[in-house]
Amino acid sequence: MALHLSVLLLFTGVTGIDCTIQTVSKVSVKAGRSISVPCLYESQYTHHVKYLCRGDHFGNCYTEVKTNQQNSSGKFSISDDKHQRIFTLTFNNQSVDDTNYWCAVERNDGPHDAKRFQLSVTRGSPQLSVDHQEITGFNGDDVTIHFKYNISGKIQWCRLGWSCVKEQSGSLNGARVTINVNVTDFTVTLSGLRTESSGWYLCTKGDLQMPVHVTVKERPSTSKYHTTKYYVSISSLIIIGTLSLALLILVASFIWFMWRRHKQRNAQSPAATVPEEEVTYINVKRTRKTPHKADAVNVDVSTLAL
């Protein structure tokens, strides 16, 4: 019987027993919603093809999507972060069902490596859900992640492929972890975020897990912000000054043109006053000639200057 099982495993290609791939065990999502599942792999698989396979047994499962061949239906997508060595599977608009899936990696020297997980799709509220799977915070700040649940079990906050915080408080990847539990919901607060806090986390409640991706960014420098504002202000002043100078030149040019035109008109018009020449009027009287004497002429000269 044992020999038969070993032969079966060999032919079906079921591996993953050596934990070269790590992922969730079971996740829950409401029908019509989306959920992402991370799969952590070892460094030797960095440049290998990764894919999602659906089925109870890996030997006869159906490949839904691959890193070198996307899914045409749009119900599945896959992305590979070679730096973090994590490929992410995204499920869109799933129907109501409990289905087994496999995080799988192609191998050139033997059977493919794979790790199984279960996806539970419900009509009502999932037994474990989160407000947002993608969380972003700044270095040194705090972020609070809100979960809802209707399942019993202890809560754990784990870094995928790393350790876990199993109590109400603890430290993980340089950040302080605080878990506050209420009747139907609970929060996980990460305080004092650091750059190395970025990555995929798993929140566990009972037999369910919910993946959450945290991204930590550097806060923009305040001095840089003020420098930008000052630069914009100087630019505005330069623009206003340039426009004012252009307007001043335009007005001055117009005034000069009008003055020159007026001067030309005055040069072309006749003189307003021309002095008249002096005129001499002569009154001549004729007298009767006397015998043997020449005619006498009496001249009355008057000079008038007009």
Automatic annotation (TrEMBL):
InterPro entries: CD300_family_receptors, Ig-like_dom_sf, Ig-like_fold, Ig_sub, Ig_V-set. GO terms for cellular component: plasma membrane. The chain crosses the membrane at residues 230-259. It is found in: Membrane. It comes from Larimichthys crocea (Large yellow croaker). Keywords: Membrane, Signal, Transmembrane, Transmembrane helix. This is Immunoglobulin domain-containing protein. Pfam families: V-set. Residues 1-16 form the signal peptide. One of its GO terms (molecular function) is transmembrane signaling receptor activity. Residues 24-122, 132-217 form the Immunoglobulin domain.
